[in-house]
Amino acid sequence: ACSSFLRRSSARRLRVVFEQAPGRVGEITSTTNYLQDSSENFSEREQQTCSAKWQKFSPYNQLPSFPVNFAVMARLLRQSSRLSQCLPSLLAKPSSNVATNWANSRSYAAAAAQLKPSPVYTQPPPAPVLARPPPLSEEQVEQYFREGFLICPGFVDVAQLDECLEAVSDLVDFVARRLYNTGRITDPCESAPVSQRLWLLEKQFKGASVLIHKGGVLPEAFQRLWSHEKLLDAVTQFIGNDIAGHPVWNLRSKTPFTEQATVPWHQDNAYLSPECENTLQVTAWIPLVDANHINGCIQVLRGGHTSGVTAKHTCCAGDTWYVQCDMKDMESIGVSDKDIVTCEMARGGVLFMNNAIPHRSTENLSENIRWSLDLRWQDPSMPNGFHNLKDNVTMRLGSDPDYKTKWDEFANVDRTKLQMKDAREEDKDYFETTIAGPWMERWEITHPNRHTDALKKSGLTGWHA
Fold first, then answer.
1. Beta-carbon-side half-sphere exposure of residue 292 (alpha carbons within 13 Å)
2. Of 20, 56, 315, 401, which has the maximum CB count within 10 A?
3. pTM of this prediction?
4. Is 324 in a helix, a strand, or coil?
């Protein structure tokens, strides 16, 4: 709804004010007045649109009504700084104490943590009206927002997981045949079970599991699970009646004793652009086999989501493409190793998380592959933070109870190729096992490796490109 004039001049000025000098409240006030004076550039309809969006986007809607300039500022700041979480509190009720601490702080995360918790991640929406009894109790919904995660045993029918494992078997078979037909392996291991085959391939071709991870085309069995009415009903309890699937979904092949299958401490927001940090994204981590401390499960830092701030991350962990966050940096958002919860789950269970909760996956010390899926949803009207590479797929609309997900275009677009299109030419060797993407540009590269080298050769101009 912003005019091109405001988009060019105000956004630049706000970035300077809030990123270079966040404690200079006088300049904040000056910029506020500037935007107020510029409100004449808006038609009545644009002003109404901005005001409506502010009421929807702002987690601070318990404060008095804001003039249109606040709506504009909120919209611009979502794209320019993670400090947007703190802006309404400062402008509505200036606090010299907070401003002083903010100005003197060396860490945006530590300063933001001094403010009240972010309602985006901590306050449940009004209870929705569903066609069926809600799958989650009020206590479970409250726990999700209070602790940042929720374990639901027996939530998914194991027969549906069997369908997903059959699809996994087909994906592994496709990789095995390509490796064998091109002479890269001598044995396609056709008789091996899905719990073993990819690991056996990995022993012959290092990086076979990466080829599975890179695969971006969505099998029909995964589509059915992702849009299953029970899962969507639960997500409705978290975000409301309008639901979209986020473009980042993953099939995780945690092969035994494999570094690239062991994900370090991080927040999902660290992989996304900051514009989405006012967007609640619900993740369902679904193990296709039993997940425990032996074969590798998820650990979370209970309560690490409450500030809504993304802690400092670095790139990359070991010989991987993963960003990571040290425990000392987690302390800036109010958590430590005392808050670790190990989420062991039997097959059929679902772990719900949000995009701000710190988590990791532990190493697989067993003799079998631990397969899992992570699927994500959000409000379709909110930014997804996926660097403008791929849109969401709408799954449910409150205004249209009969809406059906349109899978064709989404399911057949390989998002891995999109995120790496600048890092490697599209016709590059299928068997290349490096992964690079825009998230690497957001954080300091403290451990260069072949993945970061691929980024340097890419010509990317910024993580938000």
1. 7
2. 315
3. 0.73
4. strand
